[in-house]
Amino acid sequence: MEVRENIISILVNNKPDVLARIAGTFSGRGFNIESISANVMMNPAITKIIITTRGNKQTVTKMEKQLHKLVDVLQVDDLTDVDSACGEMILIRIKLTEENKGKVMKAINTYNWRVVSMDPSSCIVEVTGDKELIDDALALLAPLGMDDFTRTGCIVLKRCKS
Amino acid sequence: MQLTGSQILFKILKEENVDTIFGYPGGSVMDIYDELFRQNIKHILVRHEQGAVHAADGYARVSGKVGVCLVTSGPGATNTVTGLANAYMDSIPLVVFTGQVQTWLIGNDAFQEVDITGITRPCTKHNFLVRRIEDVATTIKEAFRIARSGRPGPVLVDLPKDVIQTRIDEAELKYSISLPDKPVIPNAKRCAKALDLLKKAQKPVIISGGGVLLGRASEELRSFARVLNIPVTSTLMGLGTFPASDPLWLGMLGMHGTYYANMAVSYSDLLIAVGVRFDDRVTSNVEAFAPHAQIIHIDIDPASIDKIVKSHLSIVGDCKPALQWFNKEITSGRLSLPAEQIKSWRQQIRQWKEKFPLAYCRSKKIKPQCVIETLWKITNGEAIITTEVGQNQMWTAQFYRFDRPNTFISSGGLGTMGFGLPAAIGAQVACPGKLVVDIAGDGSIQMNIQELATAVQYNIPVKVVILNNNFLGMVRQWQELFFDKRYSHTDMSHAPDFVKLAEAYGATGFRASAPDEVETVLKKGLHTRGPVMMDFEVEPEECVYPMVKSGDPLTEMSLGDSNIVA
Fold first, then answer.
1. How far apart are CA A47 and CA A15, in angstroms?
2. What are phi and psi of B128, to 5 degrees?
3. Contact with chain B for residue A21, Cβ under 8 A
4. Residue ranges of domains in chain B
5. Which one of B65, B206, B386, B403 has the lowest number of neighbouring Cβ atoms within 10 Å?
6. Domain B2-172 and domain B368-541 have a common topology
7. CA–CA separation, B335 vs A99, rounded Å?
8. Total number of domains in chain A
9. Which pLDDT does position B183 carry in this prediction?
10. Measured between CB atoms, does B178 come within 8 Å of chain A?
11. At A10, which CATH number?
12. Active site residue ranges of B
């Protein structure tokens, strides 16, 4: 069966040890978490966790069943094949020099990236989009003097069925 | 009136009908023990916290109640880990209370501080660290509910010292819990789908597992199998769910299962697996497991379905209502299996049974199988038997013929040496009037031998049968068969004199050195009051057969001596 990236959305009780339980369930069953994002919902007692993990459909289904067994897990949705909006964000810091400044500015203008901070020696660019778009931005900026970056990992929201 | 955390603990324990605790005191739980001094609740002081958890485990398996332990923080808590993992693997409902350092010290590497909820997260069904006095009652209530609901399991509750000491006004003590505790009724439509498969079956076999015991569905299983004349095998955990004296009984399946159970499963066209999780000791080579069979898998845990073996039809729910549903279909005439349809199958099974029955050779030395067989005879198969792990456990599974549920108490999933003696103590506490025997090896008995003191202190009259071969027998067997007899560190001949040791503890000891002493010593031992340890000097290099080499198909069994009828 095909190994692919899977997106799992989990609603959990907002308790200090829940993330450890979920991470432990993944590692204990031999899975790696590729990306994770967790945020408190409007009801502060509940947290939504979005996890991406590689595996085939069968093994990921087993993983979901194991997650379901955790007492603090309220809901598990596999959104891999579900019609949903998906995106992530990256912040990229670039060291500015006389040589690269022009190229960096050109890239920023071409792709309409948002500049979050700018001073004479460095700038931070924000890119939002799907995984491929972020990967492309990274590939473009890496040789231009990229210093460091932070990326959120995938977040996803199911589209309304109407 | 004001209540301390300790008083709330005992208040809830009473509400949960807990009358026995297995425990060991220490600094962090001194307040609880002080309150216990005033409470009317039985406490069994073990000699090691691991023993407390195994004893509670044995107690739970025999009584059907939740087993309860109380230990201190730090090492007291870490000593429970093996017991928790053992109960988790075998789905045994326990609530284990651990002391913890004061909340303001947590995270400071305080004396006897350990992150026990962190340590036990993967080997408990759930665990709690209670940080506020207001949460004590609710949390303990939840712990019991979680331990026994659905697929049962152990729950740990970590109680910091200051939380236990704090007082709260009884009027302010509000607790309610929202988790469901109803039996999971299986979907009738899915059950109905099974009817067609059942009606067409020509070579049906039932595999009964530990879930049948936990779901208290032995009666339903018996009736289902007997009316339809379906042969029954069981996993190690399922022994006792179906009577070994019934002609439909096939014995245990798997690595050390009977020839005929393994053959029946391998040639079956319909497996009805009830309350099993298809452990690798059961399936061996999964690819080659039951290759001709459609599989109906009934289990309460959805995560067990299709985890190892893909089922053709899965029914998620308590096995009791599931089997009741099928039995109702039978009584109403909608489900039957004509005798003619399975006649040749039953004939085939009879031939397999006659070809290779369970057997062993007699010799001048005591045969371990003979000890168990004799024990079975003189107890009329009515004792509660616990085992340690290894050869002693497998021979017990093969040669003690269990007719009743909850009479075979063994560490199935984790394979914990040292389980048998404390589990026997727990079982005996649950059933004071019954005969409880721990069948042990000379290796494993030494892993929790200290609990003999517990048995003596409370006059818990457990009988220990040591099959003493001066080896770590099962490991030696593998070394003999797969490592050219290189007996690397399995020689156990430097052992204590078990008779003297029993006496040193204040128990009674007996020894048998020759086959003709077996019956006499067993009778003497079983009729002696109080805890007794019987040391049987058995054939040192006896192997357990049949044996399927790990990873081989179940049909490829080494039969060893077992093809020679005694």
1. 9
2. -135, 140
3. yes
4. 2-172, 188-355, 368-541
5. B403
6. yes
7. 84
8. 2
9. 81
10. no
11. 3.30.70.260
12. 49, 111-112, 161, 474
Residue of A nearest to B126 (CA): A71
pLDDT surpasses 80 at B177: no
CATH code for the domain of A119: 3.30.70.1150
Q: Which of B118, B146, B302 sits opposite A65 (nearest CB)?
A: B302
Residue in chain B lying closest to A16 (CA): B129
Strands B384-387 and B408-409: what pairing?
parallel
A101 Rama class: left (phi>0) / alpha (psi -120 to 50) / beta = alpha
For residue B220, what are the CA distances in angstroms to B233, B238, B313?
15, 14, 20
Q: Do A76 and A98 have their domain in common? A: no
User: What pLDDT, on the 0 to 100 scale, is given for residue B561?
Assistant: 65
Q: Which one of A24, A28, A69 has the shortest CB-CB distance to B303?
A: A69
Q: Which of the 8 DSSP states describes residue B353? A: H
The closest CB to that of A17, out of B117, B146, B303, belongs to B117
Within this chain, do residues A11 and A51 fall inside the same structural domain, yes or no?
yes
Check A68 against B303: CB less than 8 A apart: yes
Query: Same domain, yes or no, for A149 and A107?
Result: yes
Length of chain A: 162
Q: What is the CA radius of gyration of chain B?
A: 24
Nearest chain B residue to A24 by CA distance is: B122
- ipTM confidence: 0.89
CATH dotted code for B2-172: 3.40.50.970
Q: Which of A82, A112, A141 is the last residue of a domain?
A: A82
A17 and B307 within 8 Å at the Cβ level: the answer is: no
- Whether A41 and A90 map to the same domain: the answer is no
Contact status of B167 with chain A (Cβ, < 8 Å): no
Q: Do A71 and B121 touch (CB under 8 A)?
A: no
Do residues A61 and A76 share a domain? yes
3-state secondary structure of B234: strand
My answer on whether A14 and A60 are in the same domain is yes
Task: Report, as an integer, the average pLDDT of B501-522.
Answer: 98
pLDDT digits (tens, 9 = 90+) for B454-485: 999 999 999 999 999 999 999 999 999 999 99
Compute CA B198 distance to the chain's CA centroid, rounded to the nearest angstrom.
30
- List the domain range (segments joined by +) for residue A134: 85-158
**For chain B, how are helix, strand and coil distributed in percent, rounded to 5?**
45, 20, 40
Q: Is A127 helix (H, G, I), strand (E, B) or coil?
A: strand
**B277 part of contact set with chain A, CB < 8 Å:** no
Which CATH fold would you assign to the domain B368-541? Answer: Rossmann fold (3.40.50)
Closest chain A CA to residue B178 = A71
Tell me how close the Cα of B303 comes to any Cα of chain A, in angstroms: 5
> B188-355 falls under which CATH superfamily?
TPP-binding domain (3.40.50.1220)
Q: Does A24 touch chain B (CB under 8 A)?
A: yes
Only one residue has tokens 């962090």, namely B28
pLDDT for residue B176 is more than 90: no
Question: Would the pLDDT of B565 be above 70?
Answer: no
Asked whether residue A121 falls in the same domain as residue A101, the answer is yes
Answer yes or no: do A76 and A131 share one domain: no
Choosing from A82, A114, A131, the residue where a domain stops is A82
The pLDDT tens digits for B527-537 are: 999 999 999 99
Chain A residues closer than 8 Å to B121 by CB: 17, 20-21, 24
* Contact state of A71 with B301 under an 8 Å Cβ cutoff: no
